Amino acid sequence: MSTTLPLIERGMILGKFMPPTQGHRYLAEFAWRCCKRLSVLVCSKPGQPIPGACRFAWMRAMLPDCDVVHVPDDLPDAPEEHPRFWDLWMPVIRRAVPDPIGLVVTSETYGPELARRIGAKHLVADRNRQGVPISATAMRADPYTHWAHLPDVVRPWYCRRVVVFGPESTGKTMLAERLAAHYRTVWVPEWARGHLDPANGQCEPDDFPRIALAQAASEDALALQAHRVLISDTDTITTTIWSEVYLGGCAEWIRDLARSRRHDLHLMCDIDVPWVADGQRDMPHRREEFRERCRAALITHGRPFVEIRGDWDTRFRTAIAAIDRLLGPLTDAPPIAAQLRLTAEFTGAKL
Domain 159-346 carries which CATH code? Predict the structure, then answer.
């Protein structure tokens, strides 16, 4: 007689995943190893704090080898909420997973009854959350404390985005790098510098579309690696300002991109520090004009900002105080920088 446990053809897990945590990743990967194919039902309904489409996209990215299905039906969350709970849920599950389900994996008390009604075996996965001590409720309440249990793909939703902003030669790069080290996070360099170095800093009209798209793409890529806060050395608003100065105007799609990019805080660096020439800085005589352009742009775009003045240490302390306030307790709303749209969708432009 064989003692080998046959691998079940089709398994299923389901949940709100609001947001997905490393606990959910464990649940899914545990279940995936117990069957040949795993269906993951991401259940959502209107009015929840994180849109179902976001959670569906996150789970698909986390679980590329699974069949992830979005279930947007407005259904009760637990059997005690509605007398016809099971009658409402069973047709929805059958629609989402047409194949026979041989295994249900949960960490919830309703798991055995769900499996019985489906005609499947049931396995419990870390019901007491000892392996991964986190819940989605705790994560929503305080994501910064529980950051280690937040999957990379979800981090941009909660990551606070801070831009070091202002005219040339005001210590932006130095401040960005120093802040990133202080908060043990990553920072986004000014993409244009590396792009223009081979041309000795000379900027051509065709460079502005590349700079606009690439700066936004760099920021979104590095947000996946950030620890609570992402520090950016410049942003797309800056690109619109430089385009106006060099070209006398700016492409409308770049302006639209700048308007669509949302950040939680701009650190507006003043010009009360000495000018230092380098291969790309070329307008020391226009520092006051640039400062006023930068301030006016932030006001026009409705961006929260803090003035950064004084010597280097004073600037650093002012920036830390502002970011510490930003990392305080969350309200019900996510950070305004929570954004998942791809940069190129605004234009269809190609690098």
Answer: 3.40.50.300
